[in-house]
Amino acid sequence: MFWKRILESDRPAATIIIRMLVRAVFLLEGMKKVLSVGQGGAGRFARIGIPDPQVMARFVGSIEVLCGLPLLIGLLTRPASLPLIIVIAVAILSTKVPILLKNGFWPMEAEARTDDSMLLGLLFLPLAGAGAWSVDARLPGRPGRGNA
Known about the structure:
Elements: H1 2-7, H2 15-35, H3 42-47, H4 53-73, H5 77-103, H6 105-128, H7 135-138
């Protein structure tokens, strides 16, 4: 019963749009953190005051890549979304809340649009599942198998 609920994917095929949006941002951002030390990785983490930026950039980048890859094909979409929800929540708290406190709502809102969109997309995926066009929907015995 537990795995049935985790893998259930009887949502419309259009769910792939949200999955691809979230996957694209996290997979690419994760790769930047791991591969581009100065701009996307440890350098950026150091500039915003993240402790031990070398380790944290690789750690966060690895989570983004390892959880973004399954979203590409819709494999274990619900569990893969959960670490990314934590990552984006920490990003919002560590980068956007200080802007809010220092400069007010409108400057923070201008900086937070992508983070807000990613958070909403990530909250959608555990609730809806991967959708009909996913590996989850093709696993044997799944309800909604083959729906498009």
